Amino acid sequence: MIYDAIIVGAGPGGSSAAYVLGSAGWKVLVVEKENVPRYKTCGGGLSFHMLRKYFPFSFDAVIESRCQSISYALGKNMVTHPLPDNQMGMVMRDRFDAYILSQAPVEVCQGVHIHKVSEQADRVVVEDKNGATYEARYLIGADGASSVVARSLGLRRKKPLVAAIEVEAAASPEVMSRFSGGAVFIFGEIRLGYLWIFPKSDHLSVGVGAYHPRPGELQAALKRVMTRFGVSLDGCKIHGHPIPVYTRREKIASARTLLVGDAAGLVDPLSGEGIRMAIKSGHMAARALLEGHPERYPGRVLHEIGASQSLGMVLIPVFYYLTELAFLFGVHNPFANQAFMDLLSDKISYRGVMLRLFATLPLFILTELTAALAGLFGGPARRQKIRSAVYSL
Q: What pTM was computed for the model?
């Protein structure tokens, strides 16, 4: 049987492409090395607006928690911003990925380990470790940072990586109630990286990621910081995961094969967020195939994702080497926080974030100075009233 398309990998990128192609009537085979649902190291934070943008169905069945706020910590300084309309939610990747795949009218082969991929003039041939072969007109590689598809076809050879580890930690009712309202990002504890605490329905997902960490540095930072926040890691399994970063125009496609998600390195370079990029690139790859122009896919990725991520790379040294200034003028700024949320919602790019940050900075400074003066004479209530009046606009 020759399929219209074979998709290697059933993560958000592969499952999204499968949904689009299958819904269009294509004969699609999804090949996954694990048995779905399978655990995936991931914080699991995402935007509800982003999900509504790319899918016509509800995700209520797999939402672990809804965030009413987002907090940023630097040393003893904690800044919390409310999130109106529950903009952000949490999922477990095993259930989330399987849910998207379940909506796709496609054939799925689980427990299949792909050994190599080869392209011919009119088809792509996929071979598993047992020697079985599968053929299709096109192939989408969605098989992660260590993509067999990319390696077989000589795609994306240079792979800058961020290292991350995560723990699914049980917590006492007191600790769970403290973090149940929203996500927490912790800075200043590790070079070129951050830690996170994300609430799930019955536990906390906690982790740390950084560029070029020293051996044991991630583990030590995670244990030290989580102990300070009252989260015990005793007896918990540590999961590791490489995060590939797309930093420039790269070879992410051949004549009949397109890479999406982690396989293409499409992870946000500043935040390490990958779910949105996987879903977005999965839809882009599927659309390119449906249009009959797979050759347009790399250019679209560069235009719609790569250009933004290049600007994100510029922000990395600013944020991590000038952390206190970034915290003061960025994290404290509600306008900047909303810009960041709009980025996660796939409403704007990093260019939009930077434009909004610089455009609102004078208003933010003026508001804070005015509120501080008002607080001297009218007390905390007067100060908060001025801040609320401006930031609610």
A: 0.94
